[in-house]
Amino acid sequence: MDRQSGGSFAGCRSCQALYGECRLLAMSKPWVWITVLPLLLARPAPVSGESCVLWLRQQESTVQEREAIQQAIVQAFAERGLPEPLFVGSALPPEELAARAGRAQQLLEQARDEYRRFESDAALASVGAAREALAEGCGVAPSDLALSIELLEGMIHFSGGNREQAERAFARLFELDAEYTPDENVLSPKIVALLSQIRVAVQARPASVLVVRVLPADAEVRLDGRVFGGAAHRSNLPAGEHCLSVSHPLFLTAVQRLRLSPGQQLSLDVVLSPVLEGREEFRSIAGAVAARYGSDWMIWLEVVGDTTEVLFASAAAGAVPASVSCPPGDVARCVAQQFEKMRAARKQIVELPPPLAPPPQPVPAPVPSPEPVRPWYRQWWFWTSVGAAVATGVALGLAAALSADSPGYRIVLGRP
């Protein structure tokens, strides 16, 4: 599973387009540490461009058994023209990662005590165990822990007269940190001089190129404890061993110990494991998780003894997950066949013409509201009558006044 060929990781078959290919998320029992499995040989992307994430869960299985199931699923999907699956390993819970890093620190202290007692063989064994523990928890360990392990191993070999092994261990210091500077107050002048020579030799090697693509796309990528490569997650780095960690607040952290040869170009695709436990929890949020990945489908495949339960969930809005049971010994063909049916059914729903809109209803004419009834003293006829009465009274009054006897004035009605 650690074979590297043509700059691809673990027998990579399809590193063309993570977002155009089918992504499979394969998860074994919860306490198996992350194994970032490969994309498999390059092949044209499906015409449909549909993608999926498959989560393979097995309570008890070996690496070889999981790989056999994965390869069988790849072949079954290919025979039916389905998108090529991508297998990605599981991750340890954060507390387990921290426990592994703590274990590495304890083993390092044990190796130092054994070295002070001149127990070289025991010290080397403890150093090796510390390196193995660190490989499983390197993503959360202090960045200088790996440097301390390599430095102590080099010192043990150097004091024992094994210069070749000492040079290999010292070289890993500059592979992990190109800016590493030895402490002249702690190390002997001979070791400091040797480290200076090794630094020049390591810097003269052809640089390696590492490209990391991750899902979800906003996950943080770190290499040897430092943020790696910016948005593209691509960088030149010294050949040798490196610790890769990918983390996201909503997913489990994935860690991987890498070994790069001088001049090698390595591409990795990492899909983080969601924090899900049971099938019912998966059923309730699988569509949302698939959408977070940018995938169209998410498939849960759980193998317990001779029983295999498969749950298909589409990221489409309103889609209802569907479950099937597959017979033992024919899991790959069963999953491919059922997935083909699910895709066909979903495609029919998507391609249905939209329902005809009902004809517009006629808008009723507005009904004029009745005018309010005015009181009698605001009616026109009332004030007209009042005006006429006033005018008549004025005229009669004037006539009476002018007809009265008064000196200097006489009004005669009729002819003269």
Q: Overview of this structure, please?
A:
The radius of gyration is 43 Å and the shape is elongated. The chain is built from 9 helices and 15 strands. It is of the alpha+beta class. Helix 2 runs parallel beside helix 4 and helix 5 crosses helix 6. The N terminus and C terminus are likely disordered. A 4-stranded mixed sheet has the order 4-13-14-15, sandwiched between helices. A 4-stranded antiparallel sheet has the order 8-7-10-11. Strands 9-6-12 form a 3-stranded mixed sheet, with no helix packed on it. The chain folds into 2 domains: 229 residues, no CATH class; 111 residues, Serine Threonine Protein Phosphatase 5, Tetratricopeptide repeat (Alpha Horseshoe). A hairpin with a 2-residue loop joins strand 7 and strand 8. It starts with a strand and ends in a 13-residue tail after the last helix.
SSE diagram, text form:
Layout lengths: L3 E2 L2 E2 L14 E2 L26 E7 L4 H17 L7 E2 L5 H23 L3 H18 L5 H17 L3 H14 L12 H15 L4 E8 L4 E4 L2 E2 L6 E4 L2 E9 L2 E10 L4 E7 L7 H15 L3 E8 L2 E8 L7 E5 L4 H21 L28 H24 L13
Parallel strand pairs: 3-5, 4-13, 6-12
Antiparallel strand pairs: 1-2, 6-9, 7-8, 7-10, 10-11, 13-14, 14-15
| Binned strand content | 15-25%
Please provide the count of β strands: 15
Kindly provide the radius of gyration, computed on alpha-carbon positions and rounded to a whole number of angstroms. Answer: 43 Å
Main sheet makeup: 4 strands, mixed
> Helical region count?
9
Structural class: alpha+beta
- Distance from N terminus to C terminus (CA atoms, Å) equals 147 Å
Mean pLDDT: 74
Shape: elongated
What low-confidence regions span 5 or more consecutive residues with pLDDT below 50?
Answer: 1-48, 408-416
Helix/strand order, N-terminal first: EEEEHEHHHHHEEEEEEEHEEEHH
Strand adjacency order, main sheet: 4-13-14-15
Can you tell me the number of structural domains?
Answer: 2
The share of residues in helices is 25-40%
